[in-house]
Amino acid sequence: MAPITEVEGRRVALSNLDKVLYPASGFTKAELLHYYATVADVLLPHLRDRPVSFLRYPDGPDGQLFFTKNVPPGTPDWVTTAEVPRSEGPARMVLVQDLPSLMWAANQVAEFHTHQWVAAEPGEADRLVFDLDPGPPATVVDCCEVALWLRERLAGDGIAAYAKTSGAKGLHLLAGVRGASSERVSEYAKALAVEAERALPELVVHRMTRSLRPGKVFVDWSQNAARKTTAAPYTVRARTEPGVSAPVTWEEVAECRTAREMAFVPADLPPRLAGLGDLLAPLFDREAAGTLPPSA
């Protein structure tokens, strides 16, 4: 039987704590849970009120990986859930609102993925996202160059962008927006991705077609669609190493010269947070959120 831990008055079962999830580094499930407890204060605001999809990897990234979108069987009745619309009919998804629900979810061994909208306003975007994915031999260093171009282009429309690593091989750009549907944000993001390809034709591609991507950065604008999700800030990824999707400063982006500079593991985050705080905190300022220009 899994040991029961009390977290803020809730009883949470934590199982298989000694299991090694990442054989290359010996990183265990207990260490994963400890990491999430340590960063909870900055992670939870990025999850709160957003329906969460889980990319589960209970036997480590070399085992079976599967997405869970609906509320999993056995979910405690104190975990908040919300009904969300889908094309095939409404579904119920988990909301990770507090430390007990975070620790329960982390015990499932999962990446946390969220929509660009909150449960109360499905399809009304409050985030814009670009996923910059390098096609080898391109690396995150190339993503940084593209990110700087996109940052300036967004600023031209009065939209402030913030960067984080994907936790894998690329970079994510996030911006707060208001007054736009997911459809409109997708339209705008696609237009900027096309514009980036025209401005940086040797470096950028805006289409997912695999044959176009070697040596270029795929500017994935499609994650702005209402049905899509993106890896949340601070989530640990199901990769060979326990990479973290970590916020980075624009100075770090501008000065990046090697892929290693944009690779972070759980042990890196506490000292970064102590020195930098949550670099994505400005996303919570609704008054500072950008307004998209009128569509053409």
UniProtKB/TrEMBL annotation:
Pfam families: LigD_Prim-Pol. This is Bifunctional non-homologous end joining protein LigD. The keyword Ligase applies. The keyword GTP-binding does not apply. Residues 28-279 form the DNA ligase D polymerase domain. It comes from Streptomyces griseoviridis. InterPro entries: LigD_pol_dom (IPR014145), MtLigD_Pol-like (IPR033649), NHEJ_LigD (IPR052171). Its EC number is 6.5.1.1. GO terms for molecular function: DNA ligase (ATP) activity; oxidoreductase activity. Keywords: Ligase, Oxidoreductase.
